[in-house]
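Data card: per-record layout.
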Amino acid sequence: MAAPIPIDSYKLGFIGAGKMAESIARGVVRAGVLPASRIRTAHKDSDRKEAFTAFGVTVFDHNEEVAEDSDVVIFSVKPQIVKKVILELKPLLPKKKLLVSIAAGIKLTDLQDWVGHNRFIRVMPNTPAAVGQAATVMCLGKAATKEDGELIANLFGAIGKMWKADEKLFDAVTGLSGSGPAYIYLAIDALADGGVAAGLPRDLALGLASQTVLGAASMASITGKHPGQLKDDVASPGGTTIAGIHELEKGGFRGALMNAVVAAAKRGRELSQS
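The structure for this 274-residue chain is written out next.
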């Protein structure tokens, strides 16, 4: 049984000081989950250093220092270099440390093989982490305890919502929440173009489109109502909304979105096997 992580005093380290690591660190500090003084990362670039030191995170010059000085280590490097980085740091990553990977497409079996133990958690956030609205999914390695899972759920809960799922579902997660923000940005852009086509100034159209998507998503998330019901609530008989919905249905709107998720999931599966 792995030794428990000391909840009141553990140190959190990021191997990789990119935008996602910064978003997670900022969210954790903002939510009061951890003080910045207990978070560390490493980078030699002055701009990346400043991004973290500006809110109190310790920035070392080398990843080895982060690994040594952390109880929980999050690998937030690009997927193609995860193996190299883990193998380099392996002597500094014993089972007493809880390890986490947010690298897309890298399976737990590989992560565990490279480091030599199973106290690993795979986590998949998405880019709205930057504004505290991530949709995050995690699965636990064989030696990760229930308490380990709770600790990580608490950390990532600071940047949005967290779900647990079997790892076999992660390619589908990639297709939906991983790639999904891009589909919605496309929808916002198209809605704004529609507003402009209908006579609205560009700035007003874009503001209305963005806020409308945000408001609709909030209604679905907060009320818990089925989106079909929420749609019906807006679409009065013979009205404007049902006329618009009719056009979307003629254009295969729902089928196109479904196909996008399935295509992205298929591509994720191909990449994870390559």
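Known properties of this structure: The first strand starts at residue 12 and ends at 15. The first helix runs from residue 19 to 30.

See the next section for split statistics.
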